[in-house]
Design goal:
With 104 residues, this protein is mainly alpha-helical. The protein has one domain. The chain contains 3 helices and 2 strands, in the order ββααα. The chain has a two-stranded antiparallel sheet with strand order 1-2. Helix 2 (55-75) runs antiparallel to helix 3.
């Protein structure tokens, strides 16, 4: 791949997918961390955002999608379509830009 993925805190290369944590700031800028650097920054209170590529975030997104689908079927509110389409696209973008470039 053309460029490496660097940690936002320590500025070192991230080598493995299991060590990668991706967050964002207001859906405009993705931040990448080593897992340990993320924990330290979270403990220090110096960052905003939740991880987008963890198992808990994938489960949470699945639950949100199921609830949004149920409410959409019931109400037909167009804003729920944004949730139903936008959430998987956001997760795909995280995978495409970061996770696919790293070894497992």
């Amino acid at each position: 791949m053309p460029d490496s993925i660097k940690c936002y805190v320590c500025d070192k290369d991230i080598q493995a997918r299991k060590d990668l944590v991706v967050t964002n700031r207001a859906f405009t800028r993705f931040l990448t961390f080593h897992e340990d650097c993320y924990k330290k920054a979270l403990k220090a209170g110096t960052l905003l955002g939740r991880p987008a590529n963890t198992l808990s975030s994938d489960i949470g997104m699945g639950v949100i999608l199921l609830i949004a689908l149920a409410f959409y079927i019931y109400t037909r509110h167009p804003l729920l379509l944004l949730v139903l389409v936008g959430s998987p696209i956001y997760r795909f973008i995280v995978w495409w830009r970061f996770e696919r470039r790293l070894s497992s």
